[in-house]
């Protein structure tokens, strides 16, 4: 932290454990080879075949996701603008007050920094890439 490191995980997909799944938050293209999809035996789904190099692919303009309603900013500790969360604005007034009171009453369960995660082994929330430091990274 801070960083934009890649993440390698193990996942369960269609009752198959897949090890070493590379999660790259910088990718803008999702690729699944037809042969790999066939081996997952998920049934027939029309896949779009693409026979171009990645730089030739044109990205569509991203669609902005709009919230269904405006959210209320709630200070969990009144007067501390760093300890905030959001709540729905279209709740009945009495329900909104109950929700906000419940959030404030239980503010100790929120983790604002990694240090707030008392009792949790850092190994659970930390990942390390197995890199050969003798090899120069390439982007």
Structural class: alpha+beta
Main sheet specs: 2 strands, antiparallel
Q: Spell the H/E element sequence.
A: EEHEEHH
Radius of gyration (Å): 22 Å
Distance between the termini: 20 Å
Question: What percentage of the residues does DSSP assign to strands (E)?
Answer: 15-25%
In DSSP terms (H or I, runs of 4 or more residues), the helix count works out at 3
Roughly what is the average pLDDT, rounded to an integer? 76
Number of strands: 4
Catalogue the unreliable spans: none
- For the biggest β-sheet, the strand order reads 1-2
How does the overall form come out from the CA principal axes?
extended
Description:
The strands form 2 sheets. Strands 1-2 form a two-stranded antiparallel ribbon. Strands 3-4 form a two-stranded antiparallel sheet. It has helices spanning 34-40, 93-105, 122-125; strands at residues 7-13, 16-23, 71-75, 84-88. It is 17% helix and 18% strand. It is an alpha+beta fold and 139 residues long.
């Amino acid at each position: 932290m801070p960083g934009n490191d890649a993440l390698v995980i193990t996942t369960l997909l269609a009752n198959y454990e897949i090890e070493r799944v590379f999660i790259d938050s910088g990718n803008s293209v999702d690729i699944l080879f037809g042969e790999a999809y066939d081996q997952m035996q998920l049934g027939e789904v029309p896949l779009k075949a693409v026979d171009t190099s990645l730089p030739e692919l044109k990205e569509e303009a991203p669609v902005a996701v709009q919230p269904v309603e405006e959210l209320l900013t709630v200070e969990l500790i009144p007067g501390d603008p760093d300890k905030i969360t959001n709540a729905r604005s279209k709740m009945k007034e009495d329900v909104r007050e109950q929700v906000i009171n419940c959030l404030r009453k239980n503010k100790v369960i929120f983790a604002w920094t990694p240090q707030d995660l008392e009792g949790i082994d850092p190994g659970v929330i930390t990942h390390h890439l197995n890199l050969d430091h003798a090899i120069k990274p390439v982007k």
